[in-house]
Amino acid sequence: MDVGIPGPGARRNRDGFRILRGMRTDSFAPFLAALLLLTAPPTAAAAHARDKAAAAVPSDAELERSHAVIGRIVIHNENIFDLADPKDDHWLGRLADRLHPVTRLRTISEQLLFHTGEPFSRHLLDESARILRANPYFYDASVVPVAYHDGKVDVLVVTRDVWTLNPGFNFSRSGGANQTGVTLEDVNTLGTGTDVKLQHTTSVDRSESDVQVMNPHTLGTWFTTDLAYGTLSDGKMREFILDRPFYALETQHAGGISINDSTQDDSLWNLGQEVDRFADHTRFYQIYYGFSNGLKDGWTRRYSVGLSYDEHVFSDSNQWTGATVLPQDRKFVYPWLRFDLVQDDWAALRNHNQIGRTEDFDMGAYATVKLGWADTAFGSSRDAIPFQLAAGDGYFLSKRQTLLVSSVYTGRLEGGDLDNAVLNSAVRYYDEQSGYWPFRQGNWLFFSTLAASVGKRLDFEDQILLGGDNGLRGYPLRYQDGTSRALLSLEERYFSDWYPFRLFRVGGAVFFDMGRTWGSAPLGQASLGMLKDAGFGLRFGNARTGLGNVIHVDLAFPFNSGPTDIKHVQFLVQTEQEF
C-alpha cells in the first residue's frame, strides 16, 4: 500500500504533515478507519472496534525495542459542529462552521513534539496531545498511532475547534459587585492561534480600555509575543513580553524578556468597603535564560539565571482620603538563580473540573527554588534577598479518589527579618461517586478544597482578603482583612447528560463555604471569626466556544451578618476556567 502519493486536493506543509481532506480513500483506509473509531460515539461496538484497531499496532515497549520511527503524520482538524451527525446538522451549526476559520494545519503541526523519521516515543505523543488540549481554541485533541509497517509508525492527530470570536457585551457578578464590558476578541484569529483583543471594562476598581495581541508561536517558533496597551480611569498599562518557555519536559533551552510600565490606584478594603486609595506606578523589567538536560528517568531538572528590575513609586490619587499613610517607595534590582524539579506523571480524567471534556491532571511531584540578591550597589533602595519556594504533588488514593497538594512561599529577607512573606497552600480532593448507591444515575463527584495563606510584615498595599470574590460566596467582596486566612469549601457536583441546542453541557452544584482571617491588619479591624455560607447553582460548560470554560450561576446564603448589614442572598454570575 503506497500512501505517499497525495490524492487530488491534498495539501502538505513544509514539515511533511498532511491534512486528511482530499486524500485517496482507497489507499488511506487505515487512517479513515481509525478516524471513524476515534470520533465514533462511545457505544460498546465502537469501543470493541477501537480496542481491536489498537491491538493491531505493537505495544509501546515493542515499538521502542525494535527502534521504530515515526512514519506519516496525518492531521485531521474538525470544525465546531460535525455536520455528518444529524444532531449537529442544523442551521446554527451550518452557519457557525461556514463563518468559522478552521485552525490551520501549520498551527497544529508546529505544536507537535515529534516529526517523521524520528524515533517513536509514546511520551512525546501524549505530551503533544496535552499541549494541543491546553489551547483555548480546541475542545479536545488526541494523538494516536494507527498503523505500523516497515519499521514505521503512522500517527493520526485529531482536534476539534470551538468558536473563538467574542463580539459583544460581558457581565459578571460576585461579592455583590458587577463587572461589565464590551469586547471584540478572537483567541484564534484566522486560525493562526493569535489572540487579538479590544475591550472596555468597568469594575468596582476602575474602567479601562485595552488592546492586546498575543501569539504563542511567533513566526512558527515556540516564542510567545505578547503586546498590551491600556488606558485606565486611574492610570495606564504598557506591556511587552517575548518569551520562549520550557514548553515541554524535553525542552533544553528557554529565555525571554519582560517589560511592564503601568500606573493604577491601589485600594485598601475592609468589610466590603473601600477605605482608602493611592496611586502606584510600577516598572518591572526582566531578562532570563534557562537550560535543562531534558527528561531523564521520569524527571526534568531546569536551571535558570536572570536579572530583574522591580520598582514601585506611590503618590496621592484623586480619591486618596489621607486616612492611611502612603506606602514607602521601593526599588529592587537583582540577579537571581532558579532551580526546578519536575516529575513526569499525568492523568487524563473527565468530569472533574470540566463537563464532558478531557482534563489533564498533573500528578507528578515538583519543586522550585528561586533566590535573588538585591544590593544598593546595583541601584536598589535597600539590600534584600527576594525568594520563591514552591512544591506540590498529586496522589491517587484509590481508583475514584484524587488528592492534589501545593504550596508557594514568596517574600524578601531584609536585615535578618522576613518582609512581605506570604505562604499559600492548598489541598484539593476529588471523589467520583457514580456507580454505587445512591449515585447510580448520572455522574456525581464530591469535591473539597482547603486553602490557607499566612503573611508576615506585608507591604502596606498587599492585603490578605477574604470575601465573595475569592471563595466565600455568601459575602461581599473583600469582606475580611488580616495577615492570615483559611477557607474550606465542600461541593457535591452533578454532571448531567443534558446538552441543550448542542451548545452547552449542563451541571449543578450544592456547596458549603467556611473561612476566617487572623492577625492584626494595618487597618486595625478585628476579625469577625468563622464565617459560613451555603448555596447551590448551575454550571454551563461551553462545548462550542473558547470564551471561558464554565459559566457559574449561583445563589449563596450567608450564616453570619457581622457588624454591617449584608444581603441575605448573594447572586453570582461568573465565567470560570473550572466547575
Describe this structure in words.
This protein has 579 residues and is mainly β. The protein has two domains: 18-161, Ubiquitin-like (UB roll), CATH 3.10.20; 165-576, Porin (Beta Barrel), CATH 2.40.160. It is 9% helix and 51% strand. The chain has helices at 29-39, 44-55, 60-65, 91-99, 105-109, 122-133; strands spanning 18-19, 69-78, 138-149, 152-161, 165-174, 177-186, 195-202, 207-215, 224-232, 235-244, 253-270, 273-296, 299-316, 330-343, 346-350, 358-362, 366-372, 385-396, 401-414, 417-432, 443-456, 464-466, 480-482, 484-495, 504-518, 531-542, 550-558, 570-576. The protein has a 20-stranded antiparallel sheet, with no helix packed on it. A hairpin with a 4-residue loop joins strand 7 and strand 8. The longest helix has 12 residues, at 44-55. Residues 1-28 and 42-47 have low confidence and may be disordered.
Comma- or semicolon-separated keywords:
four-stranded mixed sheet, mainly beta, Ubiquitin-like (UB roll), disordered N terminus, 2 domains, Porin, 9% helix, 6 helices, 579 residues, single chain
CATH C-level class of the largest domain: Mainly Beta
Most strands sheet: 20 strands, antiparallel
CATH architecture of the largest domain: Beta Barrel
Radius of gyration: 26 Å
Mean pLDDT: 87
- Which range best describes the helical content: under 10%, 10-25%, 25-40%, 40-55%, 55-70% or over 70%? under 10%
* Domain tally: 2
**What count of helical segments does DSSP give?**
6
Structural class: mainly beta
Question: Within the CATH hierarchy, at the fold level, what is the topology of the largest domain?
Answer: Porin
Give the DSSP E fraction (strand runs of 2 or more residues): over 45%
Q: Which term fits the overall shape?
A: globular
Terminal CA distance:
48 Å
Number of strands: 28
In terms of per-residue confidence, which ranges show pLDDT below 50 for 5 or more consecutive residues?
Answer: 1-28, 42-47
